[in-house]
Design a protein that fits this description.
Aspartate Aminotransferase, domain 2; Aspartate Aminotransferase, domain 1; 2 domains; three-stranded antiparallel sheet; 12 helices; 14 strands
Length: 389
């Protein structure tokens, strides 16, 4: 079975972890500080603060921006639930705006409507979904116009870029995840990036029980500190990130080129956007049949996400009409795109998806389903195959 994800851990990670074990400094320490500095440089940001995971990064970033009870945060309904949960963790409430049809990221026009209707919004929290940056330009303009913070949920977008600028440097703060299936991993972990020194200091303090100096605590915080063991893995992975990204983009280009005539809608990469393809997500009116069809042919696929956040049981008090997100949840299916794919794997994926239109289980309309966006993205160069590490 071709897996939907395949984390690549090699000798460099093992050597760095052994070095930390030999040092005896297993918890937060200089290894974490080095990871923070190196990650900030990659994001072209001034500061970085390491955390235990992507959710705590979001939580700490919102706290550092002063968002709390009585505030609302405009965000997307089409994301992992952690995006909205972090807002509630600080005592604020998420307000959902619908997503763009083309990229399924937050639609600036819908955000503008929410901002015009409400006077309690403290921030916009945009998600760079599937590794594709949200339309940050107009969102930044809206944030400035309404004097609210702009936060990037970049959990899936390590190394992505928008109009030539790196994700992680576009908002007042940005948050990353290093979960094993992400574009790079530290085993488990997260990171906040920002150009605002005061935000970085408040975030770091919040992640360390509000500590100002040894056994002096000026605020009530949490223990969200990353361990040196996680940082060791992260530093080794960060050096491989350019190779991983090149492989993902090559694999995505191969799939887009060879699925042009397949009975699915392939993902778009808008002008000025550099996706890092955390997921390669197609759309089909017969998604569940397609997923089963692929499994029968040895291809793992997954649905990210089958329920918009506003339809989750934990958010049953939210009354929202968000048709684009709701429609997407019924149609999206992510195919393998990770760096571990071989050329033969890619051919197998293409063959299996292409054959879906000929399957006896598929209604006649499936093969003739047309993309909702109306246009196909330009293909890139073919994939070069597996990246060895």
């Amino acid at each position: 079975m071709i897996p939907i994800a395949d984390p690549e851990i090699g000798e460099a990670e093992r050597e760095r972890v052994l070095s930390v074990l030999d040092s005896g400094q297993l918890a937060d320490g200089e290894e974490v500080r080095a990871f923070e500095r190196e990650f900030a440089d990659v994001c072209e940001a001034e500061h970085a603060v390491a955390t235990t995971n992507g959710t705590t990064a979001l939580h700490a970033a919102l706290e550092a921006l002063g968002i709390g009870p009585g505030d609302t945060v405009v965000t997307t309904p089409f994301s992992f639930v952690a995006t909205a949960n972090a807002i509630r963790h600080v005592g604020a409430e998420p307000v959902f705006a619908d997503v763009s049809q083309a990229t399924l990221t937050l639609d600036p026009a819908r955000v503008a409507e929410v901002l015009d209707e409400r006077d309690d919004v403290a921030a916009i929290l945009a998600v760079h979904l599937y590794g594709t940056p949200a339309d940050v330009g107009p969102l930044r303009e809206l944030a400035d116009e309404h004097d609210v913070s702009l936060v990037e949920d970049a959990a899936q977008a390590h190394g992505a870029a928008y109009r030539g600028e790196r994700v992680g440097s576009l908002g007042d703060a940005a948050c990353f995840s290093f979960y094993p299936t992400k574009n790079m991993t530290s085993g488990e972990g997260g990171m906040i990036t920002t150009d605002d020194e005061a935000v970085a200091e408040r975030a770091a303090r919040f992640c360390d029980h509000g500590r100002t100096v040894e056994y002096r605590h000026g605020d009530v915080g949490h223990n969200f500190r990353m361990t040196s063991l996680c940082a060791a893995i992260g530093r080794a992975q960060l050096r491989k990130l350019p190779e991983f990204t090149l492989a993902r983009r090559g694999n995505a280009a191969y799939l887009t080129e060879h699925l042009r005539d397949a009975p699915v809608e392939t993902p778009a990469e808008p002008d000025g956007v550099r996706s890092v393809y955390h997921q390669y997500t197609v759309r089909s009116d017969h998604r569940d049949l397609l997923e089963s069809h692929l499994a029968d042919r040895g291809v793992s696929a997954a649905v990210y996400y089958p329920l918009p956040i506003h339809e989750q049981p934990a958010y049953d008090d939210v009354d929202a009409d968000l048709p684009v997100a709701e429609r997407a949840a019924d149609r999206v299916l992510s195919l393998p795109v990770h760096p571990g794919l071989s050329v033969e794997d890619l051919r197998t994926i293409v063959s299996a998806v292409t054959a879906f239109g000929d399957s006896e289980r598929v209604p006649e309309t499936a093969a003739g389903s047309s993309p909702e966006t109306g246009t196909d993205p330009e293909p890139g160069p073919e994939a070069s195959g597996r990246v060895d590490s």
